[in-house]
Amino acid sequence: MAGVEDVIPDVGSNVELDPNVRKVLPHNSTIISSYTYGTAAWTRAARITILLEDGSEKSYFLKCASEDQGKAMIEGEFASISEIAKYTPSLTPIPHAHGQFEDASIPTYFFLMEFLNIETGAPEPATISKQLADLHARSVSPTGKFGYHMITCHGPHPQDTRWEESWAVFFARLLRQFHDREVNTNGPSKDGRYETEMDKLITSAIPEILGPLQANGRTLKPALVHGDLWEENCGKDLETGQPKIFDAAVFYGHNEYDLGMWRRELIRFGRPHIRQYLRHMPPSEPKEQWDDRSRLYCIKFEIAHSIGWPASCESQREM
Predict the structure, then answer these.
(1) 23-58: per-residue pLDDT in tens?
(2) What are the residue boundaries of the structural domains of the chain, listed by start?
(3) Topology adopted by domain 4-115
(4) Distance (Å, rounded) from C-alpha 104 to C-alpha 100?
(5) 152-172 pLDDT per residue, tens
(6) Which of 181, 191, 241, 298 has the fewest beta carbons closer than 10 A?
(7) CA 190/CA 212 separation, integer angstroms
(8) pTM of the entire structure?
């Protein structure tokens, strides 16, 4: 089956830019170079350097994916980065355009954004934690509800982001979606215990742990969450020294959701980052349930990992 690798060549190879990519470059600019810059399991990327009309040079990062899955990923990521940039423009590369290739052997979609020299890895705790807290604090859901106006993708996996007034209902639906996808990918457990326990978690534990956030007169502000913030999706801008985040899977949710990823054992974000974050955004009420909520959010990220890495599913299910 054809894939994006049939459209964009291997790393280091020159790339012939599609006419629709050329159309969104600045007017009267001249292409100096375009070559493959990186690959991933589902995408290909290129660096484009152009000469602007005023004689200065500018570089762009071009990301491509194919077929229906690729369309959802590219459109969701462009929307995600654009949404983050509305509230914290210094925290992410500037998005420029997205679209579909005009001339490709398979349907191929692209996302063009500012190119930055980024050293990937978990940024220094005090800086990234404050900037994430700023994003959460400044963002405002356009509907006052939890969700997003379109599908965004956690990796290659579409998320159910339909608007919902109850955060407990929204998260239960999202966790159910990823649990079902994981079982479909890796097969059911041998004794059925995993499915039974997960059903109890979704139907009983989630209402008990997340329901109080919006009970007894409490309100919960929907905050824009990155949705997949770990060391491979962020880094330091080598020119400014400031953190940058990308590869986002946004929706408006509980701000503490983003910290669930940082609880995973294999993630280089950790307790120092969480402690710094909580200095700027204290736990939601009831505070005594903060740790339970955080562990609950972590489960979603563990399940997402199992979908992408089937060999890990048995150990992840035991957790």
Answers:
(1) 999 999 999 999 998 767 789 999 999 999 999 999
(2) 4-115, 120-318
(3) Phosphorylase Kinase; domain 1 (3.30.200)
(4) 9
(5) 999 999 999 999 999 999 999
(6) 191
(7) 35
(8) 0.94
